[in-house]
Amino acid sequence: MKSTDLVVTPMGVRFLNRTFPATIGRGGISAAKREGDGATPAGIHRIVGMLYRPDRIARAELPKWAVPIRPFDLWCDDPDHEDYNQMVAAPFTASHEVLRRADPMYDLVLITDWNWPEAQPGRGSAIFLHVWRRPGAPTAGCVAFRRHHLIWIANRVRHETRLVVPG
């Protein structure tokens, strides 16, 4: 592992000599991730993008490469659709997640390369790093943090940063 890796541990996520409280999927960690299983996939995942809510987080708080979430931005989670595990725009009739949520969970999102860009149907859609619902509350497979911790992490993520989820 590299010193720039985000490493999931039983105590939280270790990054740059700090350990941050974090939650993972309700299905635990899985080496055989499937759509809807609620598991966080084991493996080494690159950070490939960053999205944020410009109405909730000031641009100046984030790296220049962060992309604002627009009101019509969605993420396709329909394994039978050609845009499976891709960002899409409304109107969109296939199954999807709204990226501009009413709650703060997607105020800041780091996107991993899990099953992306060439998504295999049924293998599971996006694994994000995002703001947690509340301390200790599991996710649907993503890794979640306190908001201020995620902002701190986002500002230190580099091209070589990876999310390491031991199996």
From TrEMBL:
<feature type="active site" description="Proton donor/acceptor">
    <location>
        <position position="130"/>
    </location>
</feature>
<dbReference type="InterPro" id="IPR005490">
    <property type="entry name" value="LD_TPept_cat_dom"/>
</dbReference>
<dbReference type="Pfam" id="PF03734">
    <property type="entry name" value="YkuD"/>
</dbReference>
<keyword id="KW-0808">Transferase</keyword>
<dbReference type="GO" id="GO:0008360">
    <property type="term" value="P:regulation of cell shape"/>
</dbReference>
<comment type="pathway">
    <text>Cell wall biogenesis; peptidoglycan biosynthesis.</text>
</comment>
<dbReference type="InterPro" id="IPR038063">
    <property type="entry name" value="Transpep_catalytic_dom"/>
</dbReference>
<feature type="domain" description="L,D-TPase catalytic">
    <location>
        <begin position="1"/>
        <end position="166"/>
    </location>
</feature>
<dbReference type="GO" id="GO:0004180">
    <property type="term" value="F:carboxypeptidase activity"/>
</dbReference>
<dbReference type="GO" id="GO:0071555">
    <property type="term" value="P:cell wall organization"/>
</dbReference>
<protein>
    <submittedName>
        <fullName>L,D-transpeptidase family protein</fullName>
    </submittedName>
</protein>
<keyword id="KW-0133">Cell shape</keyword>
<dbReference type="GO" id="GO:0009252">
    <property type="term" value="P:peptidoglycan biosynthetic process"/>
</dbReference>
<feature type="active site" description="Nucleophile">
    <location>
        <position position="142"/>
    </location>
</feature>
<keyword id="KW-0961">Cell wall biogenesis/degradation</keyword>
<keyword id="KW-0573">Peptidoglycan synthesis</keyword>
<comment type="similarity">
    <text>Belongs to the YkuD family.</text>
</comment>
<dbReference type="GO" id="GO:0016740">
    <property type="term" value="F:transferase activity"/>
</dbReference>
